[in-house]
């Protein structure tokens, strides 16, 4: 395929980059990467060995010691050049995201645009890494806070956003003065290799140190090396709650810091005062976009009884119009799940929730035949359910939407929304100001992201992204999320000829 050639992807690929070159292939058995679109073998990748990982980590540490001395605006200039390179390769990289991961081409191109956007954001940020000045209680003293580069940042990303989440972390970390080691999902390493090929051009052209922005393809054993590595003072981990709980404990045990972006069980509240012409499309896209494989996917829709039947009818009708097939065909709405294991999880979740008392309204089939040879295509499902069902309480990473009725005021709906272990994204559709303000108040939605009259997915890079409770509490991307990639330092300067002590303490000699 032409886009593979443009991105430097061959039949056999090394899986370890130091940012300015590729290490020789190790003796590890290569990973075969098949597309969920058609089941075809795309390429093979030789994963990183333990010896190669330590080699990369040493180079990253050495690169950091040089990079931290470069001024922040100069660091921003490098990120600007990376953004320009991504613009040049947007089309082929978007096509590769779509073919390797399975999301629609529009979403693949959107993911690359998200990378470009975060580069632009980071360039501006490079001139705004500001501290604070405060008054000292001691005369002729000045106090202020400043931020310094953290060190080498480890990034472990997931398959569903194979490149965007890496860029959120890496571009911000880079302008903050950090080096980065990236472990992409072993399910989607080709997009990572393509990104490294693009970034390497910029790093080499600017004579930057080897190891500055590096990448290691591998399985859980490489992830464990990173979690245990004291050379990585900060780990950013995207994945399931189970993965994040393990990662957080491992990193905390060595007094490292973590940014955890974990599971979501996101809900949309549709009140009696909602504009259904806006609400229904918002629910549908939130539930079926990326075939339900976003951490911000809408998994529950909580609807007031007065509009429940109308919403149910509208949703079932809309699902019947979904076009499912090759995501590179822009006429299709829904592509495949990432692999057959995900298909099994989808089918099993529907079976379990029905056993608990749920009613399948539509979908839930595994598609077969021409165009569906990979075995990864399903029809998105809607199930009438109760919020307390065990299956509803957990996250199924697939296009499975639970339809839940509420009868009281908006406080009842908010309690249902908050009544799960996860706290990532949420939304309410209402034209009633009181309902909206109660939802956004500190006693309202307990999620890190709370939207009004838009869905749960489609976050912009300008805001900090992340959630609470079992979502992990991490924040990435915009706003002041950059502070997580730096260490804070408080400074007090005495410009008097005396030595007064704080709290009026006397210590006379």
Our estimate of the beta-strand percent is 15-25%
Number of helices: 15
- Our Rg estimate from Cα atoms comes to 24 Å
Low-confidence stretches: none
Structural class: alpha/beta
Main-sheet strand order equals 14-15-16-13-12-18-19
The share of residues in helices is 25-40%
Shape estimate: globular
Number-wise, the strands total 23
Subunit structure: Homotetramer.
EC number: 1.2.1.3
Domain Aldehyde dehydrogenase: 22-490
Protein name: aldehyde dehydrogenase (NAD(+))
Question: In words, what does this structure look like?
Answer:
- This protein is α/β, with parallel strands linked by helices and 509 residues long.
- It contains 15 helices and 23 strands.
- Strands 14-15-16-13-12-18-19 form a 7-stranded mixed beta sheet, with helices on both faces. The protein has a 6-stranded mixed beta sheet with strand order 2-9-8-7-10-11, with helices on both faces.
- The model has no long low-confidence stretch (mean pLDDT 97).
- Residues 22-490 form the Aldehyde dehydrogenase domain.
List keywords for this structure.
EC 1.2.1.3, 6-stranded mixed beta sheet, globular, 15 helices, single chain, 21% strand, Ald_DH_C, alpha/beta, 509 residues, 23 strands, 7-stranded mixed beta sheet, NAD, aldehyde dehydrogenase (NAD(+)), Ald_DH_N
Provide a short characterization of the protein structure.
The chain is of the alpha/beta class and 509 residues long.
